Amino acid sequence: MKFSSVFILFFMLEMSVAQAQRNCGTAGYIQQLITTDPFIKNSFNKAAAQITAVSNNSAARDIVADEIINLPVVIHILYNTSIQNISLAQVQSQLTVLNNDYSNLNADRINTPTVFATLVADTRIRFCLAQVDPQGRRTTGIIRKYTKTDFFSPEDAMKYAAQGGDDAWDCKRYLNIWVCNMGGRTLGYSSIPGGPAATDGVVISYDVFGTTGNVRSPYDKGRTATHETGHWLGLKHIWGDAICGTDDVDDTPVQQYYNYGCPTFPHVTNCSPNGNGDMYMNFMDFTNDDCMNLFTKGQKIRMRALFAENNIRNSFLLSFACDSTLAQGGALPAIDTTVAVQPFAGLKIYPNPLQSIVTIEYIGELKASVLKTINIFNVTGNKVYSGTVISAKTNINTAGLAKGVYILSIQEGATRITKKLIKE
Length: 424
Ligand SMILES: [Zn+2]
Known about the structure:
Layout: H1 3-17, H2 26-36, H3 40-55, H4 58-62, E1 69-79, H5 88-102, H6 114-117, E2 125-129, E3 142-146, E4 175-180, E5 188-190, E6 202-205, H7 223-232, H8 297-305, E7 347-350, E8 357-362, E9 372-378, E10 383-388, E11 393-397, E12 404-412, E13 415-423
Parallel strand pairs: 1-2, 1-3, 1-4, 4-6
Antiparallel strand pairs: 5-6, 7-8, 8-11, 9-10, 9-12, 12-13
Helix pairs in contact: 3-8
The structure holds zinc ion (ZN).
Zinc ion is lined by residues 24, 26, 227, 231, 237.
């Protein structure tokens, strides 16, 4: 069949089910990008391979083991009518949902079937409205901008000021979320790891964003943003976008296809591994907002793999934008994204946030012959500690440090690792 007729058939199919089912635009968007630019497929594949490599390597995973990862969020609100210029309360309600869902503190987690309860994860990923903008100024993390565009399609115009949208903030430090009118059909879509910087982020229709204000049932519990942010963090749909496909996650059962509405448990199909059937209450299925309630431990591993050293979202571990005290009207402290390969895969630094002692532990090989210097800097670049690594486990007294954000730097030969430390 020619492309055009496939497209028309797909379009008609989509139209016929649009009113009854969740419509996530991500898979179609990614397919369109690949069609337009065949080379981008290599970039997506490389990113996916990196995620898999870290997910399968427990030492690499340990680097970001269970440390809280804070993601500064900037919300670009694009409105053509006043109803699309959503309230602060609506924005805040969405942040609350994201934080609850990603920490397994969502009230409806009690609806998770008992057989799946042991798989549920607190991802230890948190979201804040950015407090510091890319120029180092105080910000609310919310941009409001009138647009002449009636409604947008999943083709990225909302991400460019020149096309009636608003330009992305640095995607190495901020999660960009555009809230605009998607015309009532597509609820939202997301970039995936490996895509271009200018279009990196999540798009959500204004009427399915948050839990208050202009939200429409059955997408009024903020789960569209939970789902799309899952894509931004490298998760696939739970059915793998194929009949009985794979989402590359070990603990999500194979399921035949997507679910919509809210099935009755258990929903068993031909490819269910056992009588528990589909995990249709997973945030990466297509069920209604009030039907979804979990991410699994396997999904958590894949999401957090993105933040490991050398991986695509590692720079977020050094983003300061959640801390308003750092707004000084100048450039933010430089993010050192020096590529550190070995030997740092075997290095752990804990606890973080700091207590009275921070421990630097080599769990891999410690080459005693190579001088390893440790420096800790405050955010204005002043050195507050200097020392050397002399054994596999080095304790540093941090009791005297004031509350705030610090950068730990370990220089080992020609290689350097930097890590953000927080003193609470
Ligand atoms: Zn999706």
